[in-house]
Amino acid sequence: MNVNTVKKTDYVFRAPRGTEDVLPENWDLWRKLEDAGRKEFELCGYYEIRTPVFEDTRLFVRSIGEATDIVEKEMYTFADSEDSSITLRPESTAPVMRAYLEYELHKTKKFQKFYYIGPQFRKERPQAGRLRQFHQMGIEAVGASDPLLDVETISVAARIFDRIGLKGYTVKINSIGCEKCRPVFRNILKEKLCEHEKALCELCQSRLNRNVFRILDCKNEKCKTISHHMPSINDYLCGECQAHAKVVRDALLEIGIPYIVDAHLVRGLDYYTKTVYEITHSSLGARDAICAGGRYDNLISDIGGPSIGSVGFAIGMEATILALENVTAKKNKLIHQEVCGPSPAVYIVSIGEETRKQCFSLLNLLRKSNISADFDYEGRSPKAQMRTANKLGVKYVIVLGPDELARGDVKIKIMETSEEISFKQSEVLEWFLNRQSSQTQPG
Predict the structure, then answer these.
(1) Which residues contact 340 (CB under 8 A, 6 or more apart)?
(2) Fewer CB in 10 Å around end: N or C, the chain?
């Protein structure tokens, strides 16, 4: 995020490497993304779930896969007792599934939809949009194997990006098969890649015997070149996976979501089956994914539950905001407000120390009636207070000086027209409520 809009000092304590502070001036885009996500999730019948930020380490080893980069190198794991450990969650799908099983939600209603928004933790090399503490919003549709549900999740993500005005994203999809057809392709792929073993990067050489599919997703240029000459899993899909993939692709076209079939798209987590997808943005460079997801029909059974089909995605919030900043900056628009969030409707200007008590009473009277208001806590001059009111862009200013205090009056200035009106203090709330009511009436 663009935290550098505020200059950092040489103060001894700094945020840990791979983390960022979201300062008030940066919250406008965060709030915009969160609001768009919540609105779309709830429109489509997803309910919010919040899980702990740490879990039993075995949950992630069992669900994500012991031979994955996340489990081997990126998890923050701590001893909890002599024979157990806990891990800061590197992703949220496994915790949601754990909660689904722990509370036996499948026994009350098999098919359920969840959404989450929150921080995740991975010990990887920090770079723009990729942090060690990062944030994701995502959905999990649990309890159905319908390929149209895959399409729903993709469309939900696309509409969130549309809501925030993010242009230029690309939907990439693939099928990675199932436990019936994937082993055949795995053996063929391994045999072909072994012919190029010495040309692979060191990490991919180790993946040959542990997680050969991950080689297809390597960002090393030599590995990418080799991967693009490998056979496609689409040529080895069983009939069931072929039919599933066809429904997904046809339905995406039917609802007007363009996509690219990327035969080398795999996901870094072992639990995926059939549909996998990414939504990318070219402004982010090599690591261009802003959303990733797919189907994981075996995950719940892998962690001790029944066999239940599920599908979902996670949107990387930092990466999405960075892409939005890149797109907006190209259009030469102001992307950060000086003051985050809605400005108060009313600012109260206090003239003289003796008026402050009454100003504070008026402030709280307005707030109790859901009228946003603020006033000066710094003891500044009336001119300085008026400058603040102008800077905030308030609609109304209430001025209370010694003369008004003596008469029991206040002066209200309508900022748009510069009109000034005097009222009895006892009538101020009624005036604002009436004005608020008249402005919300249909034309």
Answers:
(1) 24, 25, 26, 27, 28, 31
(2) C
Angle made by CA atoms 121, 127, 129, in degrees to the nearest 5: 70
Which burial class, exposed, middle or buried, applies to 279 when counting CB atoms under 10 A from its CB (0-12, 13-18, 19+)? buried
Q: Model pTM? A: 0.85
The tokens for 314 are 């996670």
Nearest to 288 by CA among 169, 368, 208, 126: 169
Pairing mode, strands 396-400 and 419-424: unpaired
Q: Which CATH number fits domain 3-181+237-330: 3.30.70.20, 3.40.50.1820, 3.30.70.2190, 3.30.930.10?
A: 3.30.930.10
What's the fold here for domain 346-438? Rossmann fold (3.40.50)
Mean pLDDT of the chain: 89
pLDDT digits (tens, 9 = 90+) for 390-440: 999 999 999 999 999 999 999 999 999 999 999 899 999 999 999 877 765
Cα end-to-end distance, the chain, whole Å: 41
Q: Measuring CA to CA, how many Å separate 371 from each of 15, 232, 394, 416?
A: 37, 61, 12, 18
Amino acid at 230: M
Residue 443 clears pLDDT 60, i.e. is over it: no
CATH 3.40.50.800 domain range(s) in the chain: 346-438
Residue 241: partners with Cβ closer than 8 Å, 6 or more residues away? 175, 177, 178, 180, 181, 274
Range list for CATH 3.30.930.10 in the chain: 3-181+237-330
Question: Phi/psi class of residue 199: alpha, beta or left (left: φ > 0; alpha: ψ in -120 to 50)?
Answer: alpha
